[in-house]
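To illustrate the input format used throughout this study, we show a single complete record. The first block contains the structure-token representation of the backbone; no residue identities are included at this stage. The design step must infer an amino acid for every position from geometry alone.
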């Protein structure tokens, strides 16, 4: 993909995230991703607007506000304090140090492409001191992928997997992001980006997927993870993202019958939600499953 094509793909992904947050503004992780994404794209004004909206949304949630303001400081945006809004361009700067000529110079620098790698490097350094920050690892992996530093993204993902080896829910998020960003994941989906409806996961099915799963004895771990996701959805069937991950995971594992069953169950769960149904049908087409008609599920021609 050309650099221009990558840019269009990434901007489309960010726009969809912004649209989703208008419908579900209680998604803190989504707001943090949106703020960071705008900064990486050098759209500082949009990043500031997103941070301001997130602060209003979580005005009564002190831990959430701390995360928002912490991210704002990290990426060089304005952060709120008791007297209003004050530039705090780095985590150690005082309001006085960040104002005036020094603050203006730093703000100018934050609009330049060179500031983004520096921001990512600071995040990487912080994770060395606090490796238990899952959101930080997800941000780091995504940032490296956006910067097209795939080797660093893979290493960050591998380190995150080790850190959260005993946390199945965290591992699911790491693997989902690795697949989304087109990185190598244990199920062998390297290079299969799905950030903007890219190559379908069906390309990793059949013999290719079987061989990938067998490599390194990782098949049992992945199938166990997928099984736990399926069990969790039996308890919380209203998790649309979970159903989409389950359908995709079964397709990548070449378990098409289970993928079809999961898609059918998801359709019933969201029968009255046209937007959710559209996402389910789009994924079914993407991974080569049947689509719904008046009689139920029919195979794709």
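Output of the design step:
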């Amino acid at each position: 993909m050309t650099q221009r094509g990558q840019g269009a793909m990434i901007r489309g992904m960010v726009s969809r995230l912004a649209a989703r947050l208008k419908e579900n503004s209680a998604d803190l992780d989504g707001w943090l991703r949106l703020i960071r994404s705008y900064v990486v794209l050098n759209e500082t004004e949009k990043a500031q607007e997103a941070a301001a909206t997130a602060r209003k949304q979580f005005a009564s949630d002190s831990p959430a506000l701390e995360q928002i303001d912490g991210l704002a400081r990290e990426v060089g945006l304005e952060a709120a304090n008791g007297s209003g809004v004050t530039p705090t361009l780095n985590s150690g700067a005082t309001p006085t140090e960040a104002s005036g000529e020094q603050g203006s110079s730093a703000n100018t620098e934050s609009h330049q492409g060179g500031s983004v790698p520096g921001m990512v490097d600071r995040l990487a350094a912080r994770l060395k001191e606090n490796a238990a920050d899952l959101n930080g690892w997800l941000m780091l992996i995504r940032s490296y992928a956006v910067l097209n530093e795939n080797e660093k993204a893979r290493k960050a993902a591998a380190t995150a997997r080790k850190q959260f080896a005993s946390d199945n829910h965290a591992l699911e998020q790491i693997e989902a992001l690795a697949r989304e960003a087109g990185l190598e994941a244990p199920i062998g989906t390297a290079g299969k980006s799905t950030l903007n409806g890219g190559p379908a996961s069906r390309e990793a099915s059949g013999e290719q997927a079987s061989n990938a799963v067998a490599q390194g004895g990782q098949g049992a771990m992945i199938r166990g993870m997928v099984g736990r996701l399926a069990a969790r959805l039996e308890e919380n069937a209203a998790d649309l993202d979970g159903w989409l991950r389950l359908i995709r995971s079964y397709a990548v594992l070449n378990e098409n019958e289970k993928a079809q069953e999961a898609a059918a169950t998801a359709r019933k769960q969201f029968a009255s939600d046209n937007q959710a149904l559209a996402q389910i049908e789009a994924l079914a087409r993407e991974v080569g499953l049947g689509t719904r008609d008046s009689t139920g599920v029919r195979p794709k021609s």
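Structural context for interpreting the output: The chain has a mean pLDDT of 73. The chain has two domains: 3-170, 201-298.
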